[in-house]
Design a protein that fits this description.
By secondary structure, the protein is an alpha/beta fold. It is 29% helix and 29% strand. The protein has six helices and ten strands.
């Protein structure tokens, strides 16, 4: 019998690739995503919940939305996430699949502040070269679009673009190919495991906090 696991899910490429790597070893019972109250969008990524719902349905997994406030503190986040983990632990879940790549402090935070009590973190992509991971993601047939950039390191014009070989070639020096340092975030709309693509298109670009450039992804015609 396979170990039961949930996936720490942002809708982006790293968690999608981690799911792809883990789904044959683990029994995946849910995708767990933090959603910001009042905005109805994925926290940090800014993607509409309507697209998140369609993404989970296309992948065929239940979606557990962990709602946090707009001014969410670390304490609130930890409380809400631990409550979600405890719910799943009571159903037999013993692992959380994470898409973290190399940030030691992020992994340590998860392991020390969130996991425990019989639930462990699993990091299928840990310390793999990010340039190779980016190419592997594309080569497997995944398709994603950039939904947010940190404009201090990557221009807002990249928001709304497809995550493909052309984009990788245009990334400025110092920008991680997987955006692991927060340079950009993505939304995956097709690839291995998807029953059908999630039809979406790039909408308005908006700058928030004079730093983060979001592209509002809309339901509709599939991204080319």
């Amino acid at each position: 019998m396979r170990e039961k696991a949930i996936v720490s899910w942002s809708g982006g490429k790293d968690c999608a690739l981690a799911l792809h790597e883990a789904r044959h070893e683990f029994e995946i019972v849910a995708l767990v995503t933090t959603v910001t109250a009042g905005y109805d969008r994925i926290s940090m990524h800014g993607v509409r919940v309507s697209l998140l719902d369609k993404q989970a349905a296309a992948l065929g997994y239940p979606l557990d939305k962990v709602v946090v406030s707009q001014a969410c503190s670390n304490d609130e986040y930890e409380q809400q996430m631990r409550a979600a983990l405890n719910r799943h632990r009571r159903t037999g879940v013993t692992a959380v699949i994470c898409g973290d790549l190399f940030l030691e402090d992020v992994r340590r935070y998860r392991e020390e502040r969130l996991f425990g009590d019989g639930v462990r973190g699993v990091f299928p992509l840990w310390k793999q070269p990010t340039d190779a991971l980016a190419r592997r993601f594309i080569g497997l047939g995944f398709r994603a679009i950039l939904c947010c950039t940190d404009t201090t390191v990557l221009s807002h014009v990249f928001a709304g673009r497809s995550f493909d070989s052309a984009l990788l070639a245009e990334l400025p020096p110092g920008v991680d190919p997987c955006g692991e340092n927060g340079e950009f975030h993505t939304f995956v709309f097709d690839g291995p495991g998807f029953a059908t693509p999630v039809a979406c298109r790039a909408g308005e670009r908006v700058l928030r906090e004079n730093r983060f450039g979001y592209c509002d992804l809309l339901d509709g015609i599939e991204v080319p």
